[in-house]
């Protein structure tokens, strides 16, 4: 990084020295302030046909479009675009005969409004600490709160083991946790492997996994049947640097925090996995896949962990937000995986469980059909690695941009997610271990 020493070590002339100083100042300013969305505008589009959807995805390769809703035919989809790309974007929409409206010219205003109402709520419900006796699911926990609780429970419960699986670019630990009545996962019982928080801003995901952990570990007697047959391996915060950044600087940050070039940071870790990885050129986009497959420490940490448990991993769950969807492979191409029916049937069972618990009817289907094609994602990697069932779930969103579910609605959302985890976990306990590949 930039320091006086590194600047002074430039020996090849004054020009380079000045360039280094300017670059360091730009970086320092960007780091210090985070991004403000005053320069971003919001549109609502209504795609009329599947061809228009395809055109939209083609356009997303040229312009950095931040979708706040999953683009679907005949549904409103909100898209955030920078001022500088605005006219190019509008011209393309007109050329392809899109119906659209311009909503607001300063997205920061929306964020500020949401932040204000959420912080008023925090003030009303604030607690002094997040220790085991006082935790609640009416606020979004910061990284330290999550890690402290995991460590506390590891010390308190013989079922829990917490360990570090790697370090991020900024030196933060990436932690994994296992839950097993025997204390250690011994690979002789089916394993459910889960991760949350690969996308930093999808806070309901982190919290849903913490809720599941809390329930299983603090009330094991309620889930005895399930816990006696299935072990869990969980990474609750796969992208800790990004998560901290969403709390401190930029609520809408998605990627990790690697510095790609002078101005842009971040690899979309859910495009960085080493199966069906696809090259993307622009390090400034929200879905930059990295310079090569598994270029990122978070990706390596997870693939190594999966390797360790793959002989027993029957089910994989990637936890995301938002849209209320249960998605199954493949996601990098328009082809259903071999046991698509099995995925679909179990996905619908989970959806029924949510409805019985008072939730809405979630969408269940193939990832590419329901959502869009995306390469280098964890679900396809896990399926390819041998998980019999591999899902991406998109939890309940909220707020104007789909990531700011008000804290007052958080508990309901994580309880609904728990219905999915219980359904998938109970099913996993009935499945045979994967047959070792030759
Ligand atoms: O685009 C993604 O990475 C996921 N959606 S999100 O809005 N949370 O970013 C969906 C990934 C689905 N899986 C594949 N397409 N393989
Ligand atoms: Zn996501």
How would you portray this structure in words?
- With 438 residues, the protein is α/β, with parallel strands linked by helices.
- It folds into two domains: 40-105, Metallocarboxypeptidase-like (Alpha-Beta Plaits), CATH 3.30.70.340; 115-428, Aminopeptidase.
- 40% of the residues lie in helices and 16% in strands.
- It contains 14 helices and twelve strands.
- It has an eight-stranded mixed β-sheet with strand order 5-6-8-7-9-12-10-11, sandwiched between helices.
- Helix 11 (340-356) links the parallel strand 10 (325-328) and strand 11.
- The longest helix has 20 residues, at 14-33.
- The relative contact order is 0.12.
- Mean pLDDT is 88; it is low at 1-12 and 19-33.
- N~2~-sulfamoyl-L-arginine binds next to helix 13 and strand 12.
- Zinc ion is lined by residues 199, 202, 320.
- In round numbers, the mean pLDDT is 88
Instruction: Work out the helix count.
Output: 14
Could you estimate the helical fraction of the residues in percent?
25-40%
Global Rg: 22 Å
Kindly provide the name of the CATH class of the largest domain.
Alpha Beta
According to DSSP, the number of beta strands is 12
Which regions have little confidence, pLDDT < 50, spanning 5+ residues? 1-12, 19-33
For this structure, what is the CATH homologous superfamily of the largest domain?
Zn peptidases
- The total tally of domains equals 2
Strand-pairing-aware structural class: alpha/beta
Reported CATH architecture of the largest domain: 3-Layer(aba) Sandwich
């Amino acid at each position: 990084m930039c320091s006086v020493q590194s600047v002074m070590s430039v020996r090849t002339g004054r020009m380079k020295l000045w360039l280094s100083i300017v670059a360091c100042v730009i970086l320092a300013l960007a780091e210090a302030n985070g991004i403000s969305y005053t320069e971003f505008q919001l549109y609502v589009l209504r795609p009329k046909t599947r061809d228009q959807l395809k055109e939209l995805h083609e356009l997303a390769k040229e312009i950095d479009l931040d979708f706040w809703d999953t683009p679907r035919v005949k549904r409103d989809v909100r898209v955030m675009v920078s001022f500088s790309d605005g006219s190019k974007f509008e011209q393309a929409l007109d050329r392809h005969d899109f119906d659209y409206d311009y909503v607001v010219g300063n997205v920061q205003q929306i964020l500020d409004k949401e932040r204000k109402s959420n912080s008023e709520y925090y003030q009303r419900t604030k607690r002094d600490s997040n220790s085991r006796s006082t935790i609640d699911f009416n606020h979004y926990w910061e990284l330290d709160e999550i890690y402290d609780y995991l460590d506390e429970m590891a010390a308190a419960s013989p079922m829990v083991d917490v360990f570090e699986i790697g370090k991020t670019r900024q030196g933060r630990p990436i932690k994994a946790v296992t839950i097993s009545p025997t204390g250690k996962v011994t690979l002789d019982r089916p394993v459910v492997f889960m991760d949350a928080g690969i996308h930093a801003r999808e806070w309901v995901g982190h919290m849903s996994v913490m809720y599941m952990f809390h329930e299983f570990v603090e009330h094991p007697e309620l889930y005895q049947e399930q816990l006696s047959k299935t072990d869990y391996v969980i990474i609750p915060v796969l992208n800790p640097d990004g998560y901290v950044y969403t709390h401190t600087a930029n609520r809408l940050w998605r990627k990790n925090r690697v510095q790609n070039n002078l101005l842009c940071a971040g690899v979309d870790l859910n495009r960085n996995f080493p199966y069906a990885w696809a090259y993307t050129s622009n390090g400034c986009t929200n879905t930059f896949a990295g310079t090569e497959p598994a270029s990122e420490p978070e990706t390596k940490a997870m693939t190594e962990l999966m390797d360790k448990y793959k002989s027993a991993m029957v089910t994989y769950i990637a936890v995301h937000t938002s849209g209320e969807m249960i998605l199954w492979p493949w996601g990098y191409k328009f082809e259903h995986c071999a046991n698509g029916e099995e995925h679909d049937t179990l996905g619908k069972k989970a959806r029924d469980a949510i409805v019985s618990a008072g939730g809405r009817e979630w969408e269940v289907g193939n990832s590419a059909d329901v959502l869009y094609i995306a390469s280098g994602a964890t679900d396809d990697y896990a399926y390819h690695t041998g998980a019999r069932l591999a899902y991406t779930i998109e939890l309940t969103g909220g707020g104007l941009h789909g990531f700011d579910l008000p804290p007052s609605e958080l508990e309901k959302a994580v309880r609904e997610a728990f219905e999915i985890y219980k359904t998938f976990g109970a099913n996993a306990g009935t499945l045979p271990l994967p047959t070792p590949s030759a």
